[in-house]
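Worked Example 4.2. Read the sequence first, then its structure tokens.
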Amino acid sequence: RTHLFPSSPPAADCTLGARPWEAQRQGGQQTRHLPPQPHQPLWGVRGRQSRERAADGRGAGELPHARRAVCVVATMNSNSDVIPLEPGWEKMREGIDKFTHIVEGNFQESFPLAMHSELYTTCYAMCTQKAPHNWADELYKRYGTMYEQQLEQTVLPSIKAKHGTEMLREFAKRWYNHKLLVRQMWKLFVYLDRFYIKRISALPLKAVGVQKFEQVVFNQVKEEVRGGVLQLIEKEREGDMVDRDLLKSVVDVFVEIGDWRPLFPTRVGEEIGDIGQARLNTYVKELETQLLADTSAFYARESSSWIGTDSCPEYMKKAENRLLQEVALVAAYLHSSTEEKLLKEVETQLLANHQSALLDKEETGCRALLREEKQDDLKRMYKLFQRLPNSNTCGLQPISQIVREHIVDVGMSHVRKEEAEKDHSMYAQQLIDLHDQYHAMVQGPFGSNTLFQKVLKEAFEVFVNKDIGQSSTAELLSTFCDNIMKTGGDKIEGEIDTMLDKIVMLFSYLSDKDMFAEFYRKQLAKRLLLNRSASDDDERSLITKLKYRCGAQFTSKLEGMLTDMNVSKDSQNNFATWMRTSEVNLGMECSVTVLTTGFWPTYKVDEVALPAELLRCVDTFTRYYESRTSHRKLKWIHTLGTCVLTGRFDAKPIELVISTYQACILMLFNQQEEYTTADIATATKLPMDALMKYMQTLALSKYQILTKSPKCKEMTDNDMFTFNRKFTDRQRKIKMSLLVTKVSQDEKLSTKQTVDEDRKHAVEASIVRVMKARKTMAHQQLVMEVSQQLMKLFRPDPKVIKNRIESLISREYLERDKDNQGVYKYLA
């Protein structure tokens, strides 16, 4: 054992845990117990000693006798107890050289435990001596100088002696060894770190070791190292195999060198900012910046070669693969913070810079993919360009505009094709099928993105509101609903509820929703009154869906109609009970439906002369109703009434289901065999034009109940009609054609007139609501706000709004401002 001073006696055992440097007087000599060894060397002796302590049963501060650590104890004269600087440092230098030799020899031997304890004790003693012999400051300076010498003499020459991949491997190895050296030196000089450095706020020992490596080695070779790293990355991008582990270890040097910077900046003007980000200052400045520039240049060259030769789908597949490769590259050996920046450069060069050219490729661009319904390619396009920020020329917005134009083109082609057809009954179904097609596209390839949902709505609003011939889409959609909701109408495959959802979706694109509501109300009335509705549940389901879409006010009349039908059923049962109680016998079955005037459409009332049998039914029900209610007046409407007559033909009796007006005509032939057209008109009091239509259904249709003379299609006042006793049919009950079930041209005109009149009232009500809230308002602002309020039901014409304002002024609801004629005031 080598002692600090030759005059000292042999070493003695000491128990760990004693107070350091505790002086005691023993026989004129001073004994100094050296401090305990709190930190064990790098190679794990501490763990072994801990297990031995536990096995021996001794306390945590006591070693077993067989393995007891030997401490250096020096017995000195009182005048010679100071460790001089140079001898002390020489001793420390021996240990440093020893560990450096071990590292250079690839750890073929281990660092002696006794030397570790001795060096730690020496450092402790040199740092705790009283001034002027306290060498802490000098030790701290020589600690840094020691690194500089070792790096300049050994590490830097070994790195510079090699080139290319071997240089990178040597660089990574030297950094790894340097980290081990710094760790071991810190354990020897730990007293400096715990007390001296904290007192003077100096750079920690580990930070000094990293700083010296950066100053002496890193700054000298960083350009060559960076060039080697970037060269290997480019080789990998070109398809060559590279050593990813080597790249990872080299890149980690750039990251780890910045670990100590956030808390201990050393450069003047260096802004630390966020500590986590400041750790990467060296990595970003020395490697990442150039990496991003090289990446941008690489993909600029590659994309320029692709765009001229590849189709749009091929280009997108290559771009997708490149993006996946870059993600894998970052995960393999770059810092995770680089991924977002790196992908942004790739996206800019591969996607953003060539988006217009890519989408507009004539045979393989976005329009071609839409025409050919290439779902996978459209999905890939969406996922790629979703990465880019949205603008008029970048990201998803240009794609959405192409999708919008495509849908409008397809829709307008359907409109033009339908205008050439005579039968428009399937037009609504075609629109539903078209919407299903593109709605599936929006939900599938385009991921239900709100931007594409918006363009789908905008595109359908363009052509759905185009008139087909003399019919509006609102009317055709209402007629389509009528066909699937009535008995004997068009049957649909699948769930009726799903079809109703699709109808309501198409309805939401209509600008004239009030027009649809009026047509639907009239057709619903016919289904209910003629008992043609296939399902009350389906009727209520559709009304509920419309209510959810447009509000309770929109469907209040429709709901009232269904309520009236339910109330009428109860009323009919009560009427039957009343007749039995009153012993009234009508000689036939009589069913009356009582309707609320405000809910149902307005029908034209013809002054028809009812037969005595029917007149008796009317009078009887009137007496019953007046006995049950007061202050209510019944107004009989026979337009939608039905009768079941039994015709006694020669072959067999046949029941005929006909309208009330047709029944009035046929029952005349109970009185005499033949009538002229003029005689029938006089007897029934029906208008001649209406009578002509009814006579055609009875004499010139499929079922010729009457015989016309002369036999021609033209009708005159002198035509003679007789009862056709020879008529027969396979069925015993015939439902004859009822003209009222069809929407006539006159009814279309009356419906539009009704809607126009209702719109005037709606506009006026909206104007009053707005003005009542605002009191004073300019003309343009008033028009805009009223239009906004009414947009849910219809698109008001500014001219109509202006006319209604003038009407309200004339009726003294509003007045013009005396100083400004363009401003209106509300009159309470």
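Now turn to a second chain, presented in exactly the same format:
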Amino acid sequence: MTTHVSCCKWHGITCDAEGFITKIELPFNKLAGVLPDDIGGLARLENLQLDHNSISGTLPRAWDSLAALEYVFLGGTFISGTIPPEYGSLKRMVNWDLGVTSISGTLPESVIGKGGLHYVNVALTQVSGTIPHKFFQNPLDYVNFGRTSLSGTISDAIGKLDQLDHFYMEHTAVSGTLPDSIKGARRLYDLDLEGARLSGTLPPELGEMTRLDYVHFGKCVGISGTIPQTIAGLTRVDYIDLESTKVSGTIPPEMGYLHGIDFLYMEETQISGTIPPQMGKLEQLDILYLDDTKISGTIPREIKELELDSLHVGRSELSGTLPPELATLDALDYINFGRTKMTGTLPPELKKLKNLDYLYLDGSLISGTLPEEWNDLEELDILCLNATKISGTLPPKYYKMRRLDFMYIEENALSGTIPPQYGKLEAIDFLSFDNTRLSGTIPPEMGKLDRLKDLDLDFTRISGTIPPELGDCDNFYELDLDSTFLSGTIPDSFAKFDNLFDLEMDHTQISGTLPKVFDKMARLSLLYVHDTPISGTLPHGIGKWDNVEELNFKNTPISGTLPSGFTTLDHLEHFDVSSTRISGVLPRAMGNMNDLKKFMASSSSVSGFLPSELGHIGKLEWLSASYTPISGTLPKKLEQAGDLEHINLHSMQLSGTLPPEWGRLKHLEKLSLYGNKISGSLPIGFLERMRDLKSCELTKATTDALEWNTNHFYCAADVHETFASYPAACVPLQYQICAADYWIAQLAGAAVGTLLVLGLLVFCAKKARDNYIRKRSKLLNEVTSTSATVLSDLSDRKAGAPVVIVDGKSMGLAKATDSSDPRHCDE
């Protein structure tokens, strides 16, 4: 015999008197599978509640026949797809809850705008598109479109929703202004518009919405204007958030009437002026945020009337001193006056704040010493006094701050030594005293701080050696000892630093070699040992440092070759072996180091050639290998490293010509190639596209004989035309390269011209001389011939007869002259 059990007796199932299912209520029931089409056959189903189960699939179109359906709760499931427009036939529907699902698409107007909806929730879904205008014609009491991609505006019709009590539009693309008509939604309790794209000002009508409890305009960057005085009407408000808006003006004294407010957030706004004394009337106020504002003046003494838990006025124009009245705020657990203009000393009275967890006074003008009495702050978790005028010494009794997790007291005039008692700070994770005047040694007791993750002592006067006990801090994440007076060697106990991420020991007198324990530091990301006497070779296990990003060995006696695993460091960004004794050739596999941004090897013994594979490093920004014996030619493929900013390859053995392809390095800021044996013409277009170029040294002559330029360039184009299109940094090149050729050419031209003139003069002089000699010879011949004729004639004439020579011929006179005549000229 078979027994039939009615499904009306199943858990979560309700039936009417006739045995028809009216309710399926199975939330949080660990259900799985997809939504069955068969539910569409439950003609009298009114309530379907399957939220917070592992149900998937899409909304069945067959459900459009559920004429009696009023309530659907499917939030917190894995359903996807879109809302079928056919659901517009569900005339009795008043409740849609599809929040926190994978529902997408738009809101069908046939479903959303049908006029009978009270409750709609599609928050945290992939719904998009604009909000249908008819949506606001529903008698809505709950709307949650938060954190979707819905857009559009808030309709003026919202003022007619006199039953609306929750309205959530946070982090949507909803824009426009908040309509003044919103005052009609008098029952509104929660108004959340955080991060929406609203603009305009806060409507004064908000003050008429006396039931408002939660008002959130935070991160609505388009909201501006001032806080309306009518805000005093929000007597029941508990939460107001105006964070990261453009709200300006002063805090209205009327805010003192918000007697029920617990949370007031106004950080990152343009609010200015002082904190009104009337704020002291906000007896319920727990949290006040005024960080990153233009608030000025002093803290009103009326603040002692509050029951504050948190007081945040950091990064403002606040001034004055820390009022001792703060010590009366027994519940205060968070104080932030960091980066303000506050002065004075640290009040010992603050020791009464037994619940104080966080104290930020960094970047203020606070001075004086650390109060011994503060050792009573046993609940203090964070003490931040960076960049203040604090002086004096570290109080040894601060070890009683058993819950202290962060102690930041850097960049001030703190002096003395690190108390050994600090080895009892059981909860300390971060301890930072960098840029202070602390001296002495690192206490061995610090090795007892087994929770310590970060110790910063850089730029202090700490000396001595690194105590081996420090290796017992096996949770170390960051150890900064650079720019101190530490010496000695690196302890072998560092082998325990399995989690070490950042190790900085540069600019110290730490010596010896890098111990083999470094091979085990698999999580190391940054290692700085530059400018130290550390010697030996690079760790052989360097290829195991899968997370390393920066390695700096500059200016150390480290020698040997680049380890074989060096090129497998996929995340390495900065590698510097400048001024070391590192030798060997640059491996071609460097082209596989995709994240490498800076490779520095100047003044090392690296040799060989520049691998053309360097061009495969797409992120390369700096390439420096000057003062090395590297030879060969400039690799053409380097132009593929399009992010290159600095090329420093001067004073090497490079030869060949300038690759025209380098003209594509449009981000290049510095190009230094002098002191090589590069020659040829300056390629047309080589420098014209390097618009960011600030330093260009293709040739250079200095008093150092080793640096006298050995490159030989010449210009193919006219020098003035060539440099007219170059970046400003290249203009000086006209005195280095092309203009040098130009002036050399000019001088050569002048020299040739001078030689031509001299040659012409010599030629003319020679011609003149030859003519002179020829005429002289002719004249002598004529004189000789004439003399012979004259002598012959004289022999035929009487003695004393006058003779005249004309054109080389002798002629006798017809009549002899009288020697007594005064016109007679004696011979």
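Notes for the reader: The first strand starts at residue 13 and ends at 15. Residues 703-707, 717-722, 739-743, 797-827 have pLDDT under 50 and may be disordered.
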